[in-house]
Design goal:
The radius of gyration is 21 Å and the shape is globular. The protein is an alpha/beta fold and 392 residues long. The strands form 2 sheets. It has a 7-stranded mixed β-sheet, with helices on both faces. A 5-stranded mixed β-sheet has the order 8-9-12-11-10, covered by helices on one side. Helix 2 packs parallel to helix 9 (242-252), helix 3 (85-93) runs parallel beside helix 4 (110-120) and helix 12 crosses helix 14. The chain has 2 domains: 8-252, Aspartate Aminotransferase, domain 2 (3-Layer(aba) Sandwich), CATH 3.40.640.10; 256-390, Alpha-Beta Complex (Aspartate Aminotransferase, domain 1). It has 14 helices and 12 strands. The protein starts with 7 loop residues before the first helix and ends with a helix.
Length: 392
């Protein structure tokens, strides 16, 4: 078992994953149990009493994620895993009370926007949506803000917020800062070192990496904040299944090497798309043409396989293009080893009203691609034939 001085490639394989002490099993066992025998009344063995509250398989996954997100933090990090990324988001929102004010990025995952505006707004929490890349931190985060929600890079326009500057402003007004780090992963970005109070992930995506699990997590370096999150986790019960935890543990072992291949493929596809006459604009944070390239280069060591690009085409042609792809699978979600493609306006962000989508730049021709780890020549050939098939 490694410690937090190890490199991320090593931590992904060994972090939080000790050899099982009884048999010497190299892989963390699946503790498929709902409850635990107690040697005496009210005396659970090693603290284990019920699997909603504690389970060794889930704890191993939590420790593995903590080792990656907290590797450069004195004292490390603490993680609570949930049944989905949306459940992780909800756990953070449950820290708030009626009357609290939240400032969120305007370009967030549609499910997050739906949860904020249709669920928690009904509980008396006020939300405002801001483009953190176009206003100053002082303008974005007014006095009285309780929580700042950042996606960086955002979904689907891949805007990059200056996490350090926003965290400094949030500290001035006493607001918590949450960063959804799903796209960059702890391999390429560590928001806790930049001043964030919480990191959230949809572990469904890159952390698992194989499109066969749904899960989420909340990470913090503050033990008191984690105590509050664990109380919410135990009270609301949105914990992941143990087999899902085990599968995610298996997936996380290859996270570092997968992210390298996702990035190399994405960079090559970006270069090809930028030269294509039927592509109007391409978004990728680690490309020099990206409007926040300087910020991205400062706070990220790289990026994964997420690309957004705008076709010079109407919605019908964009739909034909996506449907014609063969190596890229037309599907929602992202971060798996296989390449996926989708139209945000009609799929992942359809829950956002059309006028709001238009205002923030999610056009009918906007395509989001999750570039997998297939051979780049096959990916480019697939996009080429799909454009021809769609008449673009």
């Amino acid at each position: 078992m490694s410690d937090n001085s190890s490199k991320p490639e090593t931590l992904a394989i060994h972090g939080g994953q000790a050899v099982e002490p009884i048999t010497g099993a190299v892989m963390v066992p699946v503790f498929q149990t709902s409850t635990y025998a107690q040697p005496a009344v009210g005396q659970p063995k090693n603290g284990y009493e019920y699997s909603r509250s504690q389970n060794p398989t889930r704890e191993a996954l939590e420790a593995a994620i903590s080792s990656l997100e907290g590797r450069d933090i004195e004292g490390g990090a603490h993680t609570a895993c949930f049944g989905s990324g949306s459940a992780a988001t909800a756990a953070v929102m449950h820290l708030l009370s009626a009357g609290d004010k939240v400032v969120s990025g305007d370009d967030v995952y549609g499910g997050t926007y739906r949860q904020f505006t249709k669920v928690f707004a009904r509980q008396g929490i006020a939300f405002s949506f801001v483009d953190f890349t176009s206003v100053s931190p002082e303008q974005a985060i007014p006095e009285g803000t309780a929580l700042v929600w950042l996606e960086s890079p955002t979904n689907p326009l891949l805007k990059v917020a200056d996490i350090s500057a926003l965290a400094a402003r949030a500290a001035e007004v006493g607001a918590l800062v949450v960063v959804d780090n799903t796209f960059a992963t702890p391999i390429f970005q560590q928001p806790l070192t930049l001043g964030a109070d919480f990191v959230v992930h949809s572990t469904t995506k890159y952390i698992n990496g194989h499109s066969d699990v749904v899960g989420g997590c909340v990470v913090t370096a503050d033990p008191d904040l984690m105590t509050r999150i664990r109380f919410i986790q135990n009270s609301t019960g949105a914990v992941p299944g143990i087999w899902d935890c085990w599968l995610t543990l298996r997936g996380i072992k290859t996270l570092a090497i997968r992210m390298e291949r996702h990035q190399s493929n994405a960079l090559a596809l970006v270069a090809w798309l930028k030269d294509h006459p039927k592509v109007g604009k391409v978004w990728y944070p680690m490309d020099a043409s990206h409007p926040q390239f300087e910020v991205a280069s400062r706070q990220m060591s790289g990026f994964g396989g997420m690309i957004s690009f705008e076709l010079n085409a109407d919605l019908a042609a964009a739909e034909r293009f996506c449907a014609a792809c063969k190596v890229f699978t037309l599907a929602e979600s992202l971060g798996g080893v296989e390449s996926l493609i989708e139209l945000p306006a009609a799929m992942t962000h359809a829950s956002i009203p059309a006028d709001v989508r238009k205002e923030i730049g999610i056009t009918d021709g906007l395509v989001r691609a999750s570039v997998g780890i297939e051979h780049i020549d096959d990916l480019i050939a697939d996009v080429t034939q799909a454009m021809a098939a769609a008449g673009i």
